[in-house]
Specification:
Length: 189
């Protein structure tokens, strides 16, 4: 079973959660939607409380997550409707690994130089500038990401393999291209 992480509710991405799917609330400030094809994780608000190493470690242990496919909103003139995120610049203004980072035996200063895995042939790859939800609508650039950096940092920190897709809603309004790629993407699963 693949685990997909969405920063917003599944309907924004055109990812329909079937009627009768089980919604599980767990202590990690996340909602988990179970479908036949995937487990979809969505953070509850506020985002900064949800996206933390402690919460991601609990998600990993409770759900048995080994690989995580992050789907983030992106924009930019040169970005295809769906891109594979190969790296990021964290311009959000905060880092979930700052301060009292060590969770259990995890290091104070983890290596985050190569956290994105997976290779999806035929999909444009890009290094994105992650700017946060507050600035996403106003910042301009070649490949702007909303929230990929903090999510990927927390997942990689606790040992989850990360593959990330950026979805440009302006170029794929109904999410058809995104959903087609998700159906074929396993990102290491």
């Amino acid at each position: 079973m693949i685990f997909i992480y969405l920063a917003h509710t599944p309907d924004l991405y055109g990812f329909l959660v079937k009627d009768g799917s089980q919604t599980i609330n767990i202590k990690t400030h996340h909602r988990v939607y179970s479908t036949a094809r995937a487990n979809v994780l969505v953070p509850e608000k506020p985002f900064r409380e949800s996206v933390s190493p402690k919460n991601f470690l609990e998600l990993k242990e409770q759900l048995g997550i080994k690989n995580l496919l992050i789907v983030d909103c992106v924009k930019g003139e040169k970005a295809d409707p769906v891109i594979q995120i190969s790296d990021h610049r964290n311009l959000v203004g905060w880092n979930p690994l700052e301060g009292r980072t060590p969770t259990r035996e995890f290091p104070q200063f983890p290596d985050m130089s190569d956290i994105y895995t997976g290779d999806l042939p035929g999909i444009q790859t890009a290094t994105v500038s992650t700017v946060g939800a507050e600035r996403f609508s106003t910042v301009k650039g070649e490949a702007i990401s909303e929230l990929a950096a903090p999510i990927a940092l927390c997942a990689a920190y606790v040992g989850i393999e990360v593959c990330a897709l950026g979805w440009n809603q302006e170029k794929d309004f109904e999410g058809e291209a995104l959903n087609r790629i998700i159906k074929t993407a396993t990102c290491g699963d």
